[in-house]
Write a structure and sequence with these properties.
This protein has 339 residues and is mainly beta. Helices cover 5% and strands 44% of the residues. It has a five-stranded mixed beta sheet with strand order 6-10-9-8-7, with no helix packed on it. Strands 15, 16, 17, 18 and 19 form a five-stranded antiparallel beta sheet that branches. Strands 1-22-21-20 form a four-stranded antiparallel beta sheet. It is globular. 49% of the residues are buried. The protein binds beta-D-mannopyranose (BMA). Beta-D-mannopyranose binds at residues 49, 108-109, 244, 280, 283, 285, 303, 306.
Length: 339
């Protein structure tokens, strides 16, 4: 039993390995990483930055598939154990509300979040500039687009798994038309999943060197007795380009624009060959977390070097005590974020 409660429901078949002896890392990698290698589907060179949820006793996911023409789209995958995946050969066919084909020009970095009885897919796409696209499904057969929540440029959005104060909430990271050498996380609310507003600043890039260039949402926020646990990505610049690490933060449960605790140290940074070498080297990019409330276990899916999918494990107690021990949240983090 864990001291920190995960308010997520039980998932007895969560993929899992115990923490190896001798490590002091708050997140430990699955020993058989990466779980998805190169050329995983006909016509797709790489799958990475992808999201999964439990579904009908097993697992289902939306996967960023880089086609051999270089254009990313979203592919559906199914798995019995959350580790070995079977992919559909065709990319997900999105429609408009009337059932007519309505594909985005490209789609990448999908998240998948169940809110009430509906699964929402959130991704980055072109809409006269890069911004966020969304669709909903209840059966993983029909995928109906809903209005894009934000104007360009915005590349990174994550939905909360339940309404807060009767509003849907989404984290996002406004950006620019290039590779965005800046960026903070904001939260926006909506009554209907269509009109988004009441934008509040959540957190900025920070003096911690691993996240001193930009930050962006990662997994959907995980509800715990301590607040919303968010795994996010933080980026630093080097003479050889950007380095993406995984960070951890706990947001206030009723006012998630307020940061309660923010970890000064990364939770995971590229150090394995599959994280350091690939299409884009030195990238650990979290997109999904699975949780088992009974044991406190958490499994994090993260993109590796824009080439593979990796899996890492922690527990609610381990990661939350680590974040608290290394907390350096400041006034800018703790404020409500309205000016
Ligand atoms: C970001 C996004 C991610 C990617 C990362 C590293 O801007 O495009 O999809 O993993 O860059 O290339």
């Amino acid at each position: 039993m864990s001291n920190v409660k995960l308010i997520t429901g039980n998932l007895p078949n969560i993929p899992w390995q115990d923490k190896p002896k001798g490590t002091d890392s708050p997140l430990w990698r699955y020993t058989e990483n990466p779980i998805i290698g190169r050329n995983p589907v006909k016509g797709v060179a790489r799958i990475f930055n992808s999201a999964v949820v439990p579904y009908e006793g097993s697992f289902i996911g939306v996967f960023r598939g880089e086609q051999k023409n270089g254009i990313p789209y979203i592919y559906l995958g199914r798995s019995k154990d959350g580790i070995h995946w079977n992919f559909e050969e065709n990319k997900i066919e999105f429609t408009d509300e009337n059932g007519n084909p309505f594909m985005p020009p490209y789609a990448y970095d999908p998240r998948l979040v169940k809110v009430e009885d509906t699964y929402y897919i959130i991704w980055c796409q072109d809409a006269y500039g890069a911004t966020i696209g969304m669709a909903k499904t209840t059966d993983f057969k029909k995928f109906v687009r809903i209005e894009n929540p934000f104007l360009p440029f915005n590349r990174n959005a994550v939905l909360f798994p339940r309404k807060v104060n009767d509003k849907f909430l989404m984290l996002s990271r406004p950006s620019d038309s290039g590779h965005t050498p800046f960026g903070d996380i904001f939260v926006s609310e909506s009554k209907d999943m269509e009109y988004w507003g009441h934008h509040r600043h959540v957190m900025s890039k920070k003096g911690n060197w691993w996240e001193n260039l930009k930050i962006g949402g990662g997994t959907a926020p995980i509800e715990t007795s301590e607040g919303w646990l968010l795994f996010y990505h933080g980026v630093t610049n080097t003479c050889n380009g950007f380095v993406y690490s995984i960070g951890g933060v706990i947001l206030d449960i009723d006012e998630p624009s307020r940061v309660k605790y923010r970890c000064s140290d990364f939770l995971l940074t590229p150090e394995m060959p599959y994280e350091e070498c690939g299409f884009v080297p030195n990238v650990c990019f979290p997109c999904a977390g699975l949780c088992d409330a009974e044991t406190g276990r958490i499994a994090v899916y993260y993109g590796c070097a824009d080439s593979y999918v990796g899996l890492a494990f922690t527990t609610a107690d381990t990661v939350i005590s680590y974040i608290k021990e290394h907390d350096n949240a400041d006034e800018n983090d703790r404020e409500i974020g309205r000016r």
